[in-house]
Amino acid sequence: MDDQGRGYGPRPPGGTEEQPPEPDPLGPDSLGSDPLDPSVPEPDPLPYEGVWRFTAPAVDASVPQARHAVRDLLYRQGVPASDDLVHGLLLIVSELVTNAVRHAALLSPMLAVEVAVGPEWVRVSVEDNHPYRPTALEAAHSETGGRGLLLVREVTREAGGACDVEHTAGGGKVIWAALPLGAVRVS
After folding, report:
1. Which has fewest Cβ within 10 Å: 28, 50, 128, 135?
2. Which helix (H) or strand (E) holds 75?
3. At what angle do helices 83-104 and 62-77 cross, to 10 degrees?
4. What does pLDDT average to in each consecutive run of 10 residues of the chain (187 residues)?
């Protein structure tokens, strides 16, 4: 799995080094850090904040690789996530990568997994180059598959988060879920 870490501080092995932003030439107490209130300086990012992107071939082996990469990243960055939240995020990653492998691989031989961590939330997304926008379908009880997006929606809803599908500029799609850094209960 090829990773292209973004953010400051420790990164997954092999990530590209990104330099921290240049210091404000006017100093940390300069005005203009908040566009709504120029007298309020922008707070420094927390040590675990950042954006990381992993690319992988759209093959079955990428599902556990993506799950393990996201888990390891969350722990390595020190993201203050409960075990329930991590479990929910990993379930979402597994389902989204599985869907990309099963349904998009023909037109999209590569996929990307992105993890974005803010001060109060974690967002995971999976991008592929297939133009089809999936919908969550009810599956019959006798069917063994077909409930992935329903599961993603339910885990996200129970956590108080949000999820959606967006088109990319290149004609593909990104499916994402953002969860608050609070407890998640996965049934």
Report:
1. 135
2. helix 62-77
3. 150
4. 46 37 42 61 82 96 97 96 95 96 91 96 96 61 61 94 93 95 56
